[in-house]
Specification:
Length: 454
């Protein structure tokens, strides 16, 4: 009996030490010397005897791996060590604790990892302070990269601060030269968070601000779920798209607020099955499909829905933009139940997109068809018509539908007429303003080969 009591006491002390260590790592308490060995272990302890309390998640606090969190010390290595340890454990939590600011260099977090990994950001994460502080042998095109990850959630109430101002002010940026021209010099700027060749991702609850370039980029991913983000950058910050997706499918984006210097959301080539709802966007450049077909490339985009959202004080509302010379197809697009507030181009379809003074005329174009604009209401900036439908001379847009669209000038009484060029659809006289400029019927020739390649 005495031996049994002794064994139970030893086990109780061990269990108490383990629980205290986990509790300390969760809330960011400093390590105590007699817990130090336990906190360095990357794998959880052996299973407890039957009947002992069960701890479901292993928590890997970056402080336990040497992170300082003073906003000055380079904490990159601590994050890498915590990632490597958490990556090996089912349902692990990699914790970035509150009340700390962590400076980390450009880093690639590589998988595959065990299932159920949670990257819990409660504190602040920031990069080096501008181009001059970036390591010379490290790419300036990316900061935080997640590569080949399946089944991860990034969440929390913390802040990701991209510290982008010094990047925006590089001489090469468009707003630095005369009349929007650029000046010579290095121009690479990092995307704040990039997800590449990953799947079953959830990103929710984060606040991210002032990225040097795009805030989020999902490239060659699938099953992506974005919810409740707050993204903010100044209106004049160049190329600071909120969320960009490329070659990515089965995406939901929900319940987020984005105010920035470029598109709130941009959808690139190779995307399909994308559902965007309950967004508040602006000031910004709106929600865009494109630009597509750059440098005579093929672009295929289909099954895109943008619904139940507000766009305000923005250069554009809902936009499809393609370059001349591209090929491929954009189809089955639904813009529904969107409120516009003082938007310069509430509805814009532009197959002559050009980001400089002039671009060469080319005959091929990305074919655009089956686009529905329904229940789009609000006000527009009178510097531009409320609807701008500029389609290719050789590859017209077809089957454009307008239902229950009401757009009024934000100032004055005169309602501007829509602009149409080689755009086909069914005229809807009840639309305000009426889209009488749409061409009826079907054009004589369509780019069937381009569509088949999609």
């Amino acid at each position: 009996m005495e031996f049994t009591r002794l064994c139970f006491s030893v086990f109780s002390i061990f269990l108490l030490s383990y629980v205290c260590s986990v509790h300390g790592r969760l809330y960011g308490y400093p390590k105590m010397s007699h817990f130090r060995a336990l906190s360095q272990i990357s794998l959880p302890p052996s299973p407890a005897p039957e009947g002992a309390p069960k701890i479901d998640n292993a928590i890997f606090n970056v402080l336990s791996y040497g992170a300082v969190g003073d906003g000055v010390t380079d904490d990159t290595q601590a994050f890498k060590m915590a990632w490597d340890a958490a990556c090996q454990v089912d349902s692990a939590i990699l914790l970035v604790p509150n009340h700390y600011s962590f400076m980390i260099q450009s880093t690639i977090f590589t998988g595959p990892c065990k299932s159920g990994l949670v990257f819990q950001i409660e504190g602040t994460i920031m990069p080096p302070d501008g181009p001059d502080s970036w390591p010379k042998n490290v790419s300036k095109k990316q900061w935080l990269v997640f590569y080949r990850i399946n089944g991860m959630s990034i969440q929390g109430g913390g802040i990701i601060d991209g510290k982008g101002e010094k990047w925006w002010n590089l001489p090469c940026k468009p707003h630095k030269g005369i009349n929007g021209t650029t000046l010579p010099g290095p121009c690479d700027s990092p995307v704040a968070m990039k997800f590449f060749m990953s799947s079953n991702l959830t990103v929710q609850g984060l606040k991210i601000k002032n990225s040097p370039l795009f805030h989020f980029r999902f490239d060659s991913c699938r099953d992506v779920h974005v919810d409740s983000l707050y993204i903010k950058a100044p209106p004049q910050s160049p190329n600071t798209d909120g969320i960009h997706i490329e070659n990515t499918n089965d995406v939901t984006i929900r319940n987020s607020i984005i105010s920035n210097g470029d598109d709130c959301i941009s959808i690139g080539a190779g995307c399909y099955n994308v559902d965007i709802r309950n967004m508040t966007c602006g000031p910004s450049h709106g929600i865009s499909i494109g630009s597509l077909g750059f440098r005579n490339s093929r672009a295929c985009v289909s099954n895109i829905t943008v619904a139940d959202s507000t766009i305000k004080y923005s250069d554009n509302g809902v936009r499809i933009k393609t370059w001349q010379g591209g090929f491929g197809a954009v189809s089955k697009i639904n813009f529904n139940n969107i409120r516009m507030e003082s938007v310069r181009n509430p509805i814009i379809l532009d197959q002559y997109y050009c980001d400089k003074r002039s671009c060469a005329n080319q005959t091929s174009a990305v074919y655009i068809s089956d686009v529905i604009y329904s229940n789009i209401k609000g006000t527009y900036d009178v510097r531009s018509p409320p609807m701008h439908l500029a389609c290719s001379d050789n590859v017209p847009c077809t089957n454009l539908t307008f239902l229950d669209v009401e757009l009024y000038p934000a100032q004055g009484q005169k309602i501007l007429e829509p602009f149409c060029w080689n755009a086909y659809g069914a005229p809807r006289p009840l639309t305000i303003p009426p889209v009488f400029c749409l061409l009826e019927g079907t054009p004589q020739s369509l780019p069937s080969n381009d569509v088949d390649q999609c």
